[in-house]
Amino acid sequence: MRLHRLELRAFLAFPAREVVDFDALNEAGLFLLTGRTGAGKTAILDAICFALYGQVPGTRGIRRLRSDHAELDEPTEVVLELTVRGRRLRVTRRPEQERRALRGGGRTLAKAEVRLEAVEPDGSVTLLANRHEEVGQELQDALGMTRDQFCQVVLLPQGGFQRFLHAPTKEREPLLRELFDVARFGDLERWLDGRRVDAVRAAEQAVRAIRDVVSAAAHVVATAPEGTLAAPPLDAERDPAAAEGWLSEQAVVAEAQATTATEALAQAVAAREAAEQAHATARDLHERQAQARAAAEALAAWEARADARDAARARRDAARAAAPAQALVAAWEDRTARASAAGQEARDALAAARGADVPLPALDDLATVAPALGALADRLRTDAGGASALLPIEEQVESERLAVDALRRRADALARERTADEERLRTARAAVADLEARDRDAQTAGDRLDALRETAGTAEVRSRDAARRDALEEQVRTAELAHTDARERAVAAREAHQTLLRQHLDGMAAVLAARLRDGEPCAVCGATEHPVPAHDHASVDADAVEAAARHADELTAVRDRRAEELATIRADLAAATGAAGAAPLPELRAAAETAAQAVAEATATAAQAGAVAEQLGERRTAVAALEERIRAAALEHAALTADADARGAALETDLARVRAARAGAPSLTARVASLTQAATTADEAASAVAAAVRATGEAQDAQDAAADAAGAAGFDDLPALRAALLSTAELAELDARIETYDTGLVERRAAARRPELVAALAQPPAAVEASAAAWRAAKAAEGDALALREAAVSRRGQLRGLAQRLTAAIEHSRPLLEQRALLTDLAELATGRGAANRLNMSLSVYVLAARLEEVAAAATDRLLEMTDGRYALEHADDTAKGRSLGGLDLVVIDHWNGTTRSPSTLSGGETFMASLALALGLADVIAAQTGGVRLETLFVDEGFGSLDDEGTLDGVLEALDALREGGRTVGVVSHVGELRQRIPTQLRVERGRNGSRVRAATTLPA
Q: Concatenated DSSP letters for 36-73?
């Protein structure tokens, strides 16, 4: 990898465009990048790293890459041209940054941009990628290094390698992991450990399965009768073979127990069947004896009903003797009922006549009542005919009365309408007068409208100007306070910067003075005498001074912006005051509102002129119509009143005749209906009385005939005959009862004499309870035998299955236990935990140790050259020191006295040379590791101030000069004055008040 050209714009310390021509530096091979502390030397290295990786070394973020001194229109950009693997590339990057907005004059945030181009030999350019992911992948593939590796092997941070040289293993290991990719070895460690965990878990599950089977078998054995099965041996879980033998023995014993239990169950079943048969026989005898006793009891109860049968026979014979006279008795009863009903009807008819106010005659003898009622009915019909003759007159009287009432109501309605019209007329005349006044107002408002509008417009303009004037006065006060505050803060920041700058310069002088030795030249001026060396002061680094300068510049810019804002606001205030005058804003606003209100009112009034004129015409027409309606209503009311009075007099004469004919009835129609109904009621009462007289005679004749028949049949009187009579159904029911008794008696006698029942009574009482108890005991014994047999069979099956499971579990566990042992040994070996790993190193650390050994060997080649063959670096195995982790230690071999030393015992200059050699060795190893990419451009950062001027510096420079062989370029980053004398080709970074600049590379005379 060779650098050709670097272009910076608004990047970190460089506010403008700067160009570094590395091709000119490559011709010299060794150049010095120099400048004052804080000038921005490291910023050039940051720009190279940013161009290649989009990030800067360390912890600085991309958002802070923009120079604080750059103009807003100057974009932050880095362009780097380099050759990698024989191909020339150009990388252009811009970080995310603020820029001026295209519209509105404000600021907007521009996204980060990147371009990767190939520069062909003929000068043509080909775009390779312009997306961040694609550019990063292209450069990663070409360089073969991560950003951290690049920063260690190309931008050699000598101070960082001093810390690496002195660091213990636990601090050295993370750096090596960043430089050398050992992730796959760490993955292998974790993979082996994960496999070990899985194998341990699987083996534990297999052992747990054996333990579960043994535990289950022990539980089954515990359910057997005490002393019949043996408990598992104590070491059954740890000794699978012993457990397997024990379980096989218990299965054989369980088999024998199941056979014995099956035989005992068969015997219990036979005993239960015999007891069940005996109980059935006793139960049958008991039932037959109970039936015999029940049959005897039923016969005795039936024979006790003989008296009831004899009474039924006597009742049946009496009914048969009375049967011939039954028809006469029925005729008598029918005639008697009819006479009673006719008498009730006659009484009801007479009661109805009394309720209808019929004038009935005396009712002493029913035979004479009927003719009197007929005569009364004829007289009532004659009165009804006379009232009917007056019905037409009554109808005319009612209709005429309604007509007269209607005329009077119409006259009253006309009077009310005329009164309402008169009120409406007064209202309409008032409305006409109001509209005439409004019409005059509208004409006047239209004439004044233009003048009012002009006055209102002027008042509104002055009000707005006054509001703006008052607002600007407040803004002026605010801006004055802001300007004063910004001015004071800018002055304070500038004073703070000057203070820090003085402290920084005093501190630098004190550091140089501390290194002065009598007779030795000063590193700054070269003098060998030091009459007044600077005293020690509190040290302030250059970054703090630079930060204070930037802060002061920022506050000065803020002060200038506040001054411009104040001047602008004051000019605007003067213009607003000239337009508005000195009148207060409330007064002007009140005047504007009053003028606007007058315009609004005049506009509204003028706009009503047409509508008011139209309404006025309509109101005048309405007044004329009302006056005409009132005159017509007065004439019609007089005519209606006269007609109603004349027709009312005639109506009173006809009404007197009708009242007399009504005789108190509500109407003639009601009077006629009442008389007609009374005549009909009298006729009905006469008919009912005549029917009652006839029915009474017929009932007496039927009673006499029935009494004669009772005597002929042998009964004492008619009631005795009636009591003996029965209906056909009643006779049939008596016959059935007699026959049922006789049949039942025969059946019960036959049942009580059955041979099997007679034989059962001859035997002793059946022992049902004893046989039942014996049967229940046999059944319980059978159940116990069945439970024992089922338990034995279950134990036999369970132990058989468990024996099979145990054999399978033991077979399954053997390979898992072997795999657990194997993977445990491998994992402990890879992670450095096992006894077999004598180095106590994990696999990834072992690989890092091998890389460190390569780096130490490559560094020794450089260090021997720098130290005249005295010092060499060597990788040391530190396990002998008893630490739990090791393998990453370094020692220094002193060939002059043959001793081995710790790097921490080296002097400052020796430490610098050792760390530089270590950095160069690391660069060689990583270059070889990344596919042989030749690193043709290297930078060595700081540390040269610790070298003496006699020979050590010469050795280091000779070693760096040797790196130029084959066209390699080495840039030394330092501000040490001796190097400016020893390295003629230099690149100077000069710091100014407004940022830094890069002076073009110049070859100085030797």
A: -TTSSHHHHHHHHHHHHHSS-STT--GGG-B-TTS-TT
